[in-house]
């Protein structure tokens, strides 16, 4: 029987996870499986029937759609990472409008020196740390659709957005832009938040490339992760597979890759005075860049020391990092996503780690999932999950078993062990 549910915009929802996901203890003393919590909080996926495939859904993001006004104050951080010095910008959601600053995105101003010095609180409101997608920033409407639902609720959440270097009209003070494996800025932000807001439970969310970075960060932190839980949306996962998939079709290459490459080239041009301090960047080749993989070949490679864009993609991919995640972790992808393609989703890895759950929808596109009226379905799913886990789960009582990075008991002796964060089989010393 032919499935015609797409005609009505009804997307099929599927979940992938380990046979037995971790048990979470509720504040009432009951126990719930992470997989059950994810499934019960995920609403039915009814999308705009006129946007009946991933290309139409994704294209609709270019249309001016339903706004979600969010006001920010920006704080500039000096990086504490010696191998990647410089500054980065974090935008904090605030509730009082202030004077317009034409040097920053709409509804964004800098903290004054007095305001910056007084940031901090002993309140216990949950706080969301947000990572945006490629060449984006705190102004992106897809992330504001989630923030608006959380921060406007009575007694609701606090939130901030970590802007990738050079993005969201931030200045670069050293020759570095974003890197899909560069987790040090989010790590420094989380450490600072933990000190400034000692009682706040911290949660994370990442979108597209930011989802890849967040997954890498959570995997690197392992059991030491300060986040209570994390959500990732439209993660491209295996960056090499996703890149090759874009290059395989005309629309992938000439529409998506060309647009993303063009956006990154504009970012380079805005910060070229810094980036061209790197001696091995070939300016003639940079001037001819059309596609995203060319940007990664001629700018990202020389910047970070990768010999090819493929080496960069393999190193930065978050597929193996997923195996090292040790906090409740919920991922949402659309199977018809033309950018974060279905073939790059690590389905088998999700089955190996009891801390992670994958939700896939048959329709939705890339960071889209548009419904009639302009709302985004994924925002409802994300908010429902975050609200439930923040309101109902007792994280202090939620104990985990001694589970290794591959989902099995940690092996003893000197048997070969796969370390997901080093991506090599090795013999433990």
Protein architecture, described:
This protein starts with 9 loop residues before the first strand and ends with a strand. With 429 residues, the protein is of the alpha/beta class. The chain has helices at residues 34-41, 54-59, 113-117, 141-151, 184-196, 209-221, 239-248, 250-270, 272-275, 283-287, 292-304, 309-316, 347-352, 377-392; strands at residues 10-11, 13-17, 23-25, 31-33, 45-46, 71-78, 87-94, 108-110, 127-131, 158-162, 202-207, 227-233, 329-334, 356-361, 417-419, 424-426. 32% of the residues lie in helices and 17% in strands. The strands form 4 sheets. Strands 2-14-13-12-11-9-10-7-6-8 form a 10-stranded mixed β-sheet, sandwiched between helices. A two-stranded antiparallel ribbon has the order 1-5. It has a domain at 68-238 and 317-357: Rossmann fold. The protein contains 14 helices and 16 strands. The longest helix has 21 residues, at 250-270. Mean pLDDT is 92; it is low at 400-411. Helix 4 runs parallel beside helix 14 (377-392) and helix 8 crosses helix 11 (292-304).
Overall radius of gyration: 21 Å
Give the % helix.
Answer: 25-40%
SS-derived structural category: alpha/beta
The first-level CATH class of the domain at 68-238 and 317-357 is given as Alpha Beta
CATH level-two architecture of the domain at 68-238 and 317-357: 3-Layer(aba) Sandwich
């Amino acid at each position: 029987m032919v499935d015609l549910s797409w005609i009505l915009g009804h997307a099929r929802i599927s979940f992938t996870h380990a046979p037995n996901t971790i048990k979470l203890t509720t504040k009432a003393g009951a126990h719930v499986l992470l997989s059950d919590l994810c499934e019960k909080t995920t609403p039915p996926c009814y999308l705009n029937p006129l946007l009946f495939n991933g290309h139409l859904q994704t294209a609709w993001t270019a249309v001016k759609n339903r706004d979600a006004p969010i006001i920010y104050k920006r704080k500039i951080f000096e990086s504490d990472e010696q191998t990647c010095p410089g500054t980065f910008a974090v935008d904090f959601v605030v509730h009082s409008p202030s004077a317009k600053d034409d040097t920053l995105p709409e509804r964004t101003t800098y903290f004054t020196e007095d305001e910056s010095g007084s940031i901090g609180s002993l309140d216990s409101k949950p706080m969301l740390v947000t990572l945006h997608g490629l060449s984006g920033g705190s102004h992106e409407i897809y992330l504001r659709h989630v923030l608006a639902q959380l921060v406007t609720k009575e007694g609701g959440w606090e939130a901030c957005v970590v802007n990738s270097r050079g993005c969201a009209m931030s200045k670069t003070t050293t020759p570095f832009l974003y890197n899909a494996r560069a987790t040090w800025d989010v790590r420094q932000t989380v450490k600072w938040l933990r000190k400034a807001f000692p009682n706040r439970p911290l949660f994370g969310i990442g979108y597209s490339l930011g989802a890849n970075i967040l997954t890498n960060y959570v995997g690197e932190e392992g059991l030491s992760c300060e986040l209570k839980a994390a959500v990732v949306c439209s993660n491209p996962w295996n960056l090499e597979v996703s890149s090759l998939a874009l290059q395989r079709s005309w629309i992938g290459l000439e529409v998506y890759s060309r647009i993303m490459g063009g956006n990154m080239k504009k970012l380079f041009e805005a910060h070229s005075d810094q980036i061209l301090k790197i001696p091995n960047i070939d300016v003639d080749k940079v001037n001819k860049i059309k596609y995203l993989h060319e940007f990664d070949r001629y700018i990202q490679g020389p910047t970070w020391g990768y010999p090819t864009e493929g080496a960069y993609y393999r190193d930065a991919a978050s597929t193996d990092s997923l195996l090292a995640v040790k906090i409740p972790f919920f991922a949402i992808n659309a199977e018809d996503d033309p950018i974060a393609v279905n073939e790059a989703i690590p389905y088998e890895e999700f089955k190996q780690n009891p801390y992670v759950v994958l939700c896939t929808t048959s329709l939705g596109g890339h960071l889209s999932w548009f419904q009639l009226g302009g709302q985004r379905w994924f925002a409802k799913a994300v908010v429902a999950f975050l609200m439930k886990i923040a309101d109902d789960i007792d994280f202090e009582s939620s104990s985990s078993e001694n589970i290794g990075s591959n989902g099995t008991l940690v092996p003893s002796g000197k048997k070969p062990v796969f370390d997901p964060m080093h991506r090599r089989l090795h013999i433990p010393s």
